[in-house]
Amino acid sequence: MKTSILIVEDDKAIQNLLAATLDANAYQCYTADDGEKAIFYATVKRPDIIILDLGLPDVDGVEIIKKVRSWSGCPIIVVSARSEDKDKITALDAGADDYLTKPFSMEELLARLRVAQRKIAALGRNASAESPVFTNGGLTIDYGAGTVSVDGQQIHLTPMEYKLICLLAKNMGRVLTHSYILKELWGQAFESDVPSLRVFMATLRKKIEKNTADPKYIQTHVGVGYKMLQVE
């Protein structure tokens, strides 16, 4: 069964290019050129993935993200000419899973789509298995026991490091902004304490990564946040 994708893009040339490329790569596509149609198709067609431009003629794309997130957890990949960190953070905090800045290569978009598909598959497996154990490559988190192992070796984490890795694991494949992570871990009052978050992330990486200069599990998005990568 083909993966269905809703393309929300008001530039017809870009919309047609995206649709043609995705069709050639065996995806089923629906297209919308404004926010009203986007919400309609998202509700009626229930696409597996949404590709969303933020600069729509009738509404800001961030509002689309918020509305879709009120009832759906499908991956949302933003493609936008807005390249400022604040724009990326706003979209990701609203619930977007990924952010591509225009212009971008179709090969990169296809790679991001494959990541989104793996996330969908992983969520499906976790939901059906009802297992308290998370696995990603050599990383294992036993939520019931509160333990973390890498390649079969249990590692000691502080309570805050454990909360951090669990938050990343439960949002695998999604970029989590600094403010989102801080709010989830420490609450509203600590949203600006990015230096402390960087310290915790550095110590966590030393414990789970074989090479911190080339991390396998946790990817940094400079100026934005962090993402747990899915390891084959």
Question: Summed up, what is this model?
Answer:
The chain has 232 residues and is an alpha/beta fold.
For the report, how would you describe the main beta sheet? 5 strands, parallel
Number of strands: 12
How far the N terminus sits from the C terminus, by CA atoms, comes to 22 Å
Number of domains: 2
Query: Which class of the largest domain in CATH terms?
Result: Alpha Beta
Structural class: alpha/beta
Q: How many helices in DSSP terms?
A: 8
Spell out the CATH superfamily of the largest domain. Response regulator
Query: Approximately what portion of the residues adopt beta-strand conformation?
Result: 15-25%
Named CATH architecture of the largest domain: 3-Layer(aba) Sandwich
Estimated helix fraction: 40-55%
SSE string, helix = H, strand = E?
Answer: EHEHEHEHEHEEEEHEHHEE
Query: Order of strands across the widest beta sheet?
Result: 2-1-3-4-5
Mean pLDDT: 88
Q: Low-confidence runs (pLDDT<50, min 5 residues)?
A: 126-130
Rg, Å, rounded? 18 Å
Q: Give me the CATH fold name of the largest domain.
A: Rossmann fold
Modified residues (4-aspartylphosphate): 53
GO biological process, one term: positive regulation of DNA-templated transcription
Domain OmpR/PhoB-type: 131-230
Keywords: Cytoplasm, DNA-binding, Phosphoprotein, Transcription, Transcription regulation, Two-component regulatory system
